[in-house]
Amino acid sequence: MTLKTTKLRNAISFALVAGTAVTGTAFAQDAAPAEQEATTLDRIEVTGSRIRSVDAETSQPVLVLSREDIQKQGVTSVAEVLNRISAAGPSINRTFNNGGDGSSEISLRNLGSSRTLVLVDGRRWVSSLGGSVDLNTIPSSIIERVEVLKDGASAIYGSDAIAGVVNIITRDNYEGAEFRTHIGQFDEGDGDRQTIEATIGTSNDRGNVVMSLSRVEEGSVMAGDREQSADPVYGLGSALYSGFSANGKIWNGGPNGELSNYMIVPPGATGIGPDGQQRYALDQLVPWNVSEHAYNYAADNYLLTPQTRTALYLKGRFDLSDSITFRADALYNERRSEQQLAGFPLSGGPALGNDADTLLSGDSYFNPYNTIYGGDGRDVTWSHRLTEQARVYQQNVKTFHTYVGLEGSFQFADRYFDWDVGYNFNKSDQEDAQIGDANMRNVALGVGPSELRDGRVVCVTEPGGDVIDGCVPFNPLAPAGSVPAEQMDYILFTAQDAFQNRSESFTANLSGEIAQLPGGMMGFAAGVESRKESGFDRPDAFVAAGYSSGNGRQPTEGAYDLDEVYAELLIPLLADVPGAQLLEFSVASRYSDYSNFGDTVNSKFGFKWKPIEDLLVRGNWAEGFRAPSISSLYRGLADSYVQFGDICSSDYAGRTATIAANCAADGVPDDFIQQTNQGFGYFGQTLFPFSLGGNPNAGPETSTSTTLGLVYSPSYVEGLDIALDWWNIEIENALSTPTTSYILDQCYVEGNQSYCDLFSRRASDSQIVELFLVPQNLSVIEAEGYDLDVNYRFPETAWGQFNAGLNASYTAKWESAFTAEDEPTNAVGMYYQDDPNWRLRANANLDWTMGDFGVTWISRYYSRLVEDCPFPGEGLCSDDDRRDENGLAARNTLGATTYHDVQARYELPWNGTVKLGVNNVFAKRAPTAYNAFANSFDPQYDIPDSRYMYLEYVQRF
């Protein structure tokens, strides 16, 4: 069918800079003869292509979530919606407390959030220094629908579109007013959520303006309030409580100062010093006992972190003429979030990884070994968990977005063309506060020499020496909760950090028709983009100087810019002939020139073939890339405490003659034993911080993705649609940071001196005290699987209208190797810390409406996982006695899990809607994972043993 009206001119136009997927007709006036109106078909633009077509199905698989779909799920953020789709892998969210920062991300195909491109109205959104987009900066109130392209698209959109593209389409051309509120909480009485949204839109014959204001408040859940998270490891009770107890503890309390002879001030002990000073004598100390004195730090943590978000959104268009339109939109979003950990496990002395001046001086008034009290005057290695003040981390993130542009259309040589030019600006400013860390300079002064003068304990330069002005003596051996406020105020400080991420771009696009082919009109799109990315991380001066008890880090700051040009062709070869109701091809290519690593070209090829009207066969091959992030390039050195096994240690199980010889050549003695925090609360963790940093020589990751699929809509079963797609993604030169074990292996096994230069040992005992970790283009990844989408709209009955749907993703392969020379390992079905590799994820839904009443039932399925058992012989793991060729290899099975959600709604006579819903109807417990971090279940699962119940009301005017 040949389309000749001016509606085609408007339908194939680029409404927005990066290819917004807006359905329906454009806004310019029709000028064609009225008798041709019957042949006009509206064209739509679907994420993954910038050329519009009358067919919503493209050569690439796209999942569409409408506003109605989203509002049936009873969630309060776009992140929760996206992380429920079956193609989503694990990503950071509000359940991440230790290690979280209040952000929520999306990781398609479990390939990492930085390899999933997030667009808003087809344009790039601001990303973090690490290259990921925080979905909490996008208010759900402004969303019209979400399109998820489950395929690579770097030829269309540029960097980051390796695993797929999420395109969030905002509300447009809205008229009227709407008020929406959501109130909910878990059946345990916690995790309260409240939202208020108000949207208003108005139009005239020249334009439209939409404004939306929203406020979301999400409350916390404490880990101690759920059985599965109340202990560090569910089922082991106090066995893995922290050795950094709430009461003051001496680590070298033996007759000869043995570090393994632990003495502790017992709970409830009464100090014997004058004037209320809490000093404890040697005979008051008791041997440290795990069952009595170890500290349950897990119960003090948030299980679900609190957050508030406030947003104002404006969007408008104005027709300057019949062929030129001005468009603009703006957003302000503020997020306030918080995480909480147990009070800091403060310690002093080199044996616990601190400077020597943090030992409790033998001349301290609070040292029970002070010679004044008949002791031997030894300096004391000590610890005291600061239960007097929890560690609290707060974020205030302000996101600004602005877009302004012109778009228009014109006719040339009997062909219709559309153009647009625009400027896109995004910025996030973040201020962080860290409360509960200690100023180690003040700690060192506070545990130095002190004595009683005029009824007051004061810091002195030496016994009988001058008083140190401003110094407050610190008693680290106080019982839990009894450190005086004056001492706490002296040793604690609040760190203030600042971050910024900024992105701005100029774009210009042209699209239109080229020539008539047997299958239809050949279309094209072409454009240019110039973009700049910049950002910084400016830590508190005390943190940067290394004076904080927490991890220190240096400032990060960097920027890069790029210029790009792209072109895309749609080639319809055949239509309405036997064996080819449709046969069309698409090709695209993009040239990108980066200021930091150079240029790259990425192309794609796709096809669509309809051998019969009911069946569509589609396929796509695409090249992709991901540019290194600002953090990967310019990250300042940051402390990191890591777990590793030193292969030079004489008790290392894999020690060979070659390793022993190379270690000896490096000056490591034969009887060397690695010292770690084993038994101190974090198994195998180094006592000394290693250094993470950026690599300015990092290059781009490259990928190749392939899809092949079928879409079947049988005419003999009206309302049934089935789509089945095979997909494969191969990534080369993936950025990864070598592990400590890999670095040591390269040094002592392979003899690679460049890796030996990355670490140093302490001369006194050969312990590794410094090690440098930077990202490198080393790794390879291959993922492969199948997606199935089934939707069926039942024939309407006297009992109402039923609709059923199934969305499933099956992963057949997820292989990775640290280097291209290594043997890859397949992670499918395995669980690693914060990394569940489900073989199958699926969502099924059944929707019923009858008159003004409706009910939706949603089931979310996660397949079983297997993990290596870290506690063999404890009777915890499901396969405690499993053995392989190397001996005992215990494993634990995480059973398949299905959550059920239900929502009932009623349309009220006054144009309002009331909704009642329950998520996790049966209060399903998450499968216990013994390799999970912080809690005994992975944070991708729902809060255990809890139903979330909510009420929503929507009023339209």
TrEMBL record:
<dbReference type="InterPro" id="IPR037066">
    <property type="entry name" value="Plug_dom_sf"/>
</dbReference>
<dbReference type="InterPro" id="IPR012910">
    <property type="entry name" value="Plug_dom"/>
</dbReference>
<keyword id="KW-0472">Membrane</keyword>
<keyword id="KW-1134">Transmembrane beta strand</keyword>
<keyword id="KW-0813">Transport</keyword>
<dbReference type="InterPro" id="IPR039426">
    <property type="entry name" value="TonB-dep_rcpt-like"/>
</dbReference>
<feature type="domain" description="TonB-dependent receptor-like beta-barrel">
    <location>
        <begin position="496"/>
        <end position="921"/>
    </location>
</feature>
<dbReference type="Pfam" id="PF00593">
    <property type="entry name" value="TonB_dep_Rec_b-barrel"/>
</dbReference>
<feature type="domain" description="TonB-dependent receptor plug">
    <location>
        <begin position="56"/>
        <end position="165"/>
    </location>
</feature>
<dbReference type="Pfam" id="PF07715">
    <property type="entry name" value="Plug"/>
</dbReference>
<protein>
    <submittedName>
        <fullName>TonB-dependent receptor</fullName>
    </submittedName>
</protein>
<comment type="similarity">
    <text>Belongs to the TonB-dependent receptor family.</text>
</comment>
<keyword id="KW-0812">Transmembrane</keyword>
<keyword id="KW-0998">Cell outer membrane</keyword>
<dbReference type="InterPro" id="IPR036942">
    <property type="entry name" value="Beta-barrel_TonB_sf"/>
</dbReference>
<keyword id="KW-0675">Receptor</keyword>
<feature type="signal peptide">
    <location>
        <begin position="1"/>
        <end position="28"/>
    </location>
</feature>
<dbReference type="InterPro" id="IPR000531">
    <property type="entry name" value="Beta-barrel_TonB"/>
</dbReference>
<keyword id="KW-0732">Signal</keyword>
<keyword id="KW-0798">TonB box</keyword>
